[in-house]
Amino acid sequence: MIYPSYDVIVVGAGHAGSEAAAAAANMGSKVLLVTMNMEVIAKMSCNPAMGGVAKGQILREIDALGGYSAIVSDKTMIQFRMLNKSKGPAMWSPRVQSDRMMFSNEWRRMLEQTPNVDFWQEMVSEIIVEKGKCVGVKTQMGIEFKAKAVVLTNGTFLNGIIHIGEKKFGGGRAGERAATGLTAQLESLGFQSGRMKTGTPPRVDGRTLDYAKMEVQPGDDEIVGFSYKNIEKPDKQRPCHITYTNTEVHEILKTGFDRSPMFTGRIKGVGPRYCPSVEDKINRFADKERHQIFVEPEGWNTVEVYINGFSTSLPEDVQYKAMREIPGFENAKMFRPGYAIEYDYFPPTQLNTSLETKLIKGLFFAGQINGTTGYEEAGAQGIIAGINAHQYIQDNAPLILRRDEAYIGVLIDDLINKGTEEPYRMFTSRAEFRILLRQDNADIRLTEKSYQLGLADQDRYDRVKEKISQTNRIIELLNNTGVYPNDVNFYLNKIGSSELNQKIKLDKLISRPHISIAELIENVPKVESLVADYEHEFTEQAEINIKYGGYIEREKEMAVKMHNLENIKLPSKTDYRSIPSLSIEAREKLNKLKPTTLGQASRISGVSPADISVLMVFIGR
């Protein structure tokens, strides 16, 4: 049998691989998506949820770029919440609980309905390299598929080892085997690899829980969702619940510490600092008498429940005994225990900003292979790798998102310049331009780029242009319309805000932190007649731009200064060891990472402002 050749081969069908395959195919590439199991495409390996702080912003950016994750999330949600609504809009973060099985099934359906995507179920054991270029893959059965570019998105499967207490066995996920061969080959080609660790909690039978002993956590009344497309929202939601560990739970967990693979040194990989296991929490925070447990349903039509906050690799008997001391879990039945998994990753400093490897042309890495954790971080890398694999074979410039353009830009810039020695997770604090990078304006920031690439359709692009136009019109109306004290003082007095003593423009009134356009529409007839007919999305955008205009302008000025450094190119063949005025650490880091611009050099750990000044002198600036 003669197997067809492809433009792009994507290895792995998790969140990164699925987005990569969809992006490249929708841009016109002929794509082969290779996975070891087609039954678990884009499977939620850990918690059944999408979004959250910073992650929700990423998901909206993926949607603005034409990805599928937000659409799938909206179609399969069982609960929606907008987190941090009490804080400023830079912190607002959408999050959904998802139906785990529906999520994977919907992803597969969308990929199967995407023209240009073919599938192959088997393990890839090698990449095919000719003259420094990746030209295909070889499977475990010895079948060779040729391609012009390859994207590796192997997740936690590369030499994966699952740990439960003193037991360990090969696997990339519960019930699925590990992937072997690729790490050794990549190392032989000159790549450096490392080991990381992640974990997951037990799953339990929701019929055996006493929810009356827990706090109810309902969804929001208003379901906003992720996608900027008009996806139909559910007419009902499933509640989550909150309970807590206690000292009895902690004491039982401690009885298993002598058999813990984490504490006895059997696990060598580094785990996520910001998502520790429950045994790590009670060990590191010994003064805390309790820790929060989120009880999350796995779907509409299943009794399986995810115990968020109880990730563990302790022996299963210890897990079970300790779990039954949690309020509401006294009669809990376990479906399967929690476990830890160790896997290979490749430090992302070995990548260019396009996510193409520096060593092998046409080879791209995306997702946990780069040392990240999280579905959203994986999907973000996947869509960029898929776009840039297509751009590479078309000989077009890659899509590079700046740090002031997208959280995705921050993520990739951090990875390639700073690397990571622990699973990288996105936080709002990592983004210095987070007022510019809000979840509400991801479409304004990125849709035009997506449209130019051929990913966003005309309807989506027209919708964004309408949003910009209508928002500016609302701001203009508010800037030019004045209100008198007798128009609004009754309302200001009602909410405890200082009354007016003279006429002011509406934009000045809206600048007050506790006043919203929506409430003014409901309480002030003059405002209602002015903007009530505009969509809420547009009035909210106008309100944010008015309230935070000063901060937004300040960040834009900072971004311009950063762009100036980005525009200063560094010679690719510079031997930084020959520049004695640089610090020793800067010489080592610069020579290893070979930044392409002065801006990129300035963000490398260990390169100081003094080193940047030396470089400016060196290149004649």
Q: Could you give the topology of this structure?
A:
Blueprint lengths: L5 E6 L3 H12 L4 E5 L13 E3 L3 H10 L4 H7 L1 E7 L9 E6 L1 H13 L4 E5 L2 E7 L2 E7 L4 E9 L8 E4 L2 E4 L11 H7 L5 E7 L2 E3 L9 E3 L22 E5 L2 H8 L23 H7 L7 E6 L6 E5 L7 H8 L10 E3 L2 E7 L17 E3 L9 H19 L13 H12 L23 H12 L4 H23 L1 E2 L1 H10 L9 E2 H5 L6 H7 L1 H7 L4 H12 L1 H18 L17 H10 L4 H5 L6 H10 L3
Q: Return the CATH class of the largest domain.
A: Alpha Beta
Structural class: alpha+beta
Percentage of residues in strands? 15-25%
The name of the CATH architecture of the largest domain is: 3-Layer(bba) Sandwich
Q: What best-fitting shape do the alpha-carbon axes yield?
A: globular
Q: How many alpha or pi helices? A: 21
Looking at the structure, the CATH topology of the largest domain is FAD/NAD(P)-binding domain
Low-confidence stretches: none
Using only CA atoms, what is the Rg?
26 Å
Helix amount: 25-40%
Mean pLDDT: 94
CATH superfamily of the largest domain: FAD/NAD(P)-binding domain
Number of strands: 22
Domain count, please report it: 4
The biggest sheet amounts to: 7 strands, mixed
Please give the alpha-carbon distance between the first and last residues: 60 Å
> Based on the structure, what is the oligomeric state of the protein chains?
single chain
